[in-house]
Model the fold of this input.
Amino acid sequence: MKIVLIVNRKPYKINVEPKRRLLDILRDDLNFIGTKEGCGKGECGACTVLLNGRRVNSCLVPAFQLEGSTVITVEGLRNWKVFKPIERAFIENGAVQCGFCFPGFVISTVSFLKEKSSPVTLDKIKTAFGGNICRCTGYTKILAAIQELADQKDIIDQIQEDWKNEFNARK
Amino acid sequence: MKPNPKNFRVDAAEKLHGKTQYIRDEKIEGLWYGATIRSPYPRARIKDIQFNPDFDWDTVTVVTAKDILNNYVSMLENDMPFLADKITNYYGEAIVILAGPKKDNLDEAKKHIKIQFEELPAILDMLESETSDVKIFGTNNLFKDILIKNGDLEVAKKEADEIVHIEVRTGFQEQMYMEPQGIVALPEKDRVVIRGSIQCPYYVKGALDTMFDGKKEITVIHVPTGGAFGGKEDYPSIIAGHAALLAVKSGHPVAFFFDREEDIQFTTKRHPSYHNDTAYVTKDGKILGLDIQMVLDSGAYCTLSQVVLARAALTASNCYYIPNIRIRAKAVATNIVPPGAFRGFGGPQAVFAIEMLIEKIANQLDLSPVDVRRKNLIGLGQQTPTGQILKYSVSGKETFEDVLERSDFEIKYLDFKKNNIPILEKLSKGEYPKQKRSDVLRGIGIAPSQHGAGFTGTGENVIKGKIRVEINKNGQPVIYSAQTEMGQGEVTAFQIILSEALQIRRDDVIVAEVNTDFVPNSGPTVASRSTMVVGSLLVDAANEIIREFQNRLKENGKIDFEYRQGYFYSGEKIISFKETAKMYSDLKVEKQYEHPPIIQFDDVKWKGDAYPTYSWAAAVAEVEVDPVTFEIKVTKFYTTHEIGKAINYDQAVAQIQGGSLQGIGYALYENIRAENGKFNVQGFSDYIIPTTTEMPDFEVSILENPYPFGPFGAKGLGELPLVGAAPAVVSALWMIFGREFNEIPVLPEDVFSLFY
Done:
């Protein structure tokens, strides 16, 4: 089937099998390799992307649901102004090890900070990130970075602004 | 605490940008995919393999055992074939491999291959292996049988007030690296190039050199690896062999990219274990003697089981001084997927077993489990079971006392006991145990642990790891070693070690890609040895570089130069390291490892220095058990590690947090069983590893007690955090219930069954 979708602000017209997974479209058809496959069953969160502003496991989304959708992967997030402070928080907290789960964590971080209700407690963060599995770190440093970001008003404002820009760019 | 910017990981930015290319991210022209047809029986005779003529076999390439020159994976025993020939020895053993450009056509091709089997009796229980009529390995199915003795158990028996006996079992554990196994073989004229997610490139090279009988040149290139934990130590040799065979036969690059299910079902795991241990103790808890028997289920082929067994046996007395001890350890064959390396490498099983024995001693003699441990902790100058006298960097007592104090163990122990009394009373009466929602059972448990750093026994002297440092045109030292980055922070640590030794900026140290054509064999990236063993070579190399530069400067100017803080000085003359290095950019320094002569081991008699040194830890786990659902949760986890010297403090803490959580998973969640030889899990939803919601608050502390032969005093770290976590957690369950727990994982239903 033919579908049109927007990935990282750019529209693509593609011809795909209706059941082809968004993950394969991103990685194999459009070369957005930042999105990883850890399980293929929606269990690990390594393939998390933003689909129409909501975070999803891209391995669970078939092509026939994608017509007219907006997808943002880690490659798209790199252009957001807020990406810099997010990057800094993860690096300075020593949160990255093997890195395979990390693009998924970065997407979930943006989504969480956008939707967050204050105050952000560690328990809230734990619940929100239960779908992103990491085997290396024991999570502590990842969550510390997220807490640090959530506590900074200018970062939350920047996310809202970047989010709006992304949304407007679609039109 | 924020790390010093110098210690930020060099690989972090690329990884969180999603730019790091793991093997599946590479675009390889004309890539074919590999697939495997596996045995559906734990043990069977292969009678015939038929290829349906209706299928167009020109669209795929097929390889069977008869296509392989040397059909065995070169490892310790060479007993494992790349492809089963006449007999298959486990459910899932590879029999036929095939490759083609299209995955759906491969699936179709698989349907047109029919294998006729005659099912044979199998060994599915490790305790039946030795006496079974079925022979998988040798005459008695023993891959290895170890006896270690020190002192005289008869003396202990005579003097003891009490005999304490326990049987302990531990289960399989899956490494569950986030990136599944992935290997690509690229055929060239007389060469095969292997790229992939690999822990030990030289292992793969060795296996392929043997498989092709030297008729192909083999190059192995390490690609960024998404976690390994031992799971990519020995296993990649098998699929690299498969990919290479298909690549050579087809003339196309061939990939084996396992999906999660294939990975969890058919790749190596931690060895399950059985322990039958007896302690001879005085009435105040002093252990006079230990009689330890352990069995490791080692699966259908030997893989690394002999060495895993050795480490398990050598760790059997954990951090305790036992004057009279006998350790009998056996690695037995069964018709189950061969286990292999997993962080801890035999240590977690051994330490769990003895810690449960200690709990039982305390329980049976009505003593405090803290006091029993404290009374028996080993100290400087005392002997291990192999007669090794601990001469330096011994911190079993210090880590133990530190973690006790930091965790307020004694106070909480009493408070929690008091908290639990009414809840336990109701439970035992069969009444609803909660009055308010916050009514939970609280426990606190402790376990010390240790890990011998570097290879077991004479291993380092056999491998004789070698590194090379070259100075490039820009005056930067480039490290050539076979150590691989799998997430543990090896590249950053190596940059820190060499830059500190040379007193230059970290950014000016380059770590070369691990390509077996260019890097010498510095040994595998295993056994918590990279920092301690290979790191010590980096310091040696740095010293030689400085000496060499001083010599050359002197030849030039006929004056002596002193080296301080990155500069060579002589009178009024000052020249920086970098300027000097640019002048002498042809310099290459090689260093080869051998233990200092003070370290001696006899691996026939099992006497001497089993490890050059040990790292020490002690952990305290606070645990909550819901008295209605019996859900078990670790809420706080204190651990104190003594690792000689933390080369990268922040990332050392990260290793400790990550390893501890794997150990907590081992204790409470990670449950995988072979049912009639077939693993009963498929992925993350039925093999549960800890998520953020299972993560406790970690309170980590690192003590330093330098090892004289490590870089800046550093010892091994990578494996230790996992080793002592499970017993600390289960110790808390003993404390809550006052009942014996002797098997992991402990699941809610196990606790439930104490009452219902």
